[in-house]
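HUMAN:
Just now I want nothing more than another pair of eyes on a protein record. I would be glad if you read both lines and explained how they fit together. I have put the entry right below:
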Amino acid sequence: MSEQSLRRKGNHPVNKETKVADYDVKQEVTDKFSLRGRVFHKLREDILSGKYEEHEELKEVAIGEELGVSRTPVREAFRQLELEGLIQIIPNKGAYVTGITEKDVRDIYMIRSLLEGLCARWATEHITKEQLEEMEENVYLAKFHAQKGHLEQLAELDNRFHDIMYEACSSKLLEHQLRDFHQYVLRVRRKTLSSANRGPKSNEEHEQILEAVKSGDADLAEKLANQHMINAYENMVQSGLHELFQKDKQK
């Protein structure tokens, strides 16, 4: 396989911040989310991507005008965001971004480590031939991009490996929960994973998980996936997680 071919296969679309002009929040009711749901997901994405900074006020009228909706779905989305701990609504004052804390990140990774382990166990039992082939190709492509120093492609392939695992576990509830956790820490992960060493190491761990899944060893797959998340968190700490939150406090 040529380098050009490998580059093409490895270059998955990059998830960039959704532009409001491209985000049709008034889609037909065939959309899988209600109007309130679409507003909620758009605002949550903007908060987690860093569009809104911690302590910044979210104004119903301005957001409604920006998204082309009335204040009602915005207000309902605010309530849901408050339940998730992403904003705080102060009576007679307004809604303010709280984002996620350093402890939240640790908690998410510790919980996620257990769920990723369960996911790998169930994936071992339910993975299809096509999913297994895609996982093998993913690891192979990641090796290539690691050798070439293509960190952006490596990060995309890393995300896709976990997507395949989530899909293979055959549990929509577990898949949904893991995707939510992944979104919660994506911004922090982008800021702290500046080291070129974690990408190749992460892919080595992916390959070990892959081999356990291929061999049908659910116990080993669970153990490796659990440790993979703990390793990822420890790398974030070493890469400046604490310093990142200290800087945010000083803004």
Notes: Residues 155 and 190 are 9 Å apart (CA to CA). Residues 102-250 form a domain with the Four Helix Bundle (Hemerythrin (Met), subunit A) fold (CATH 1.20.120.530). The mean pLDDT is 82.
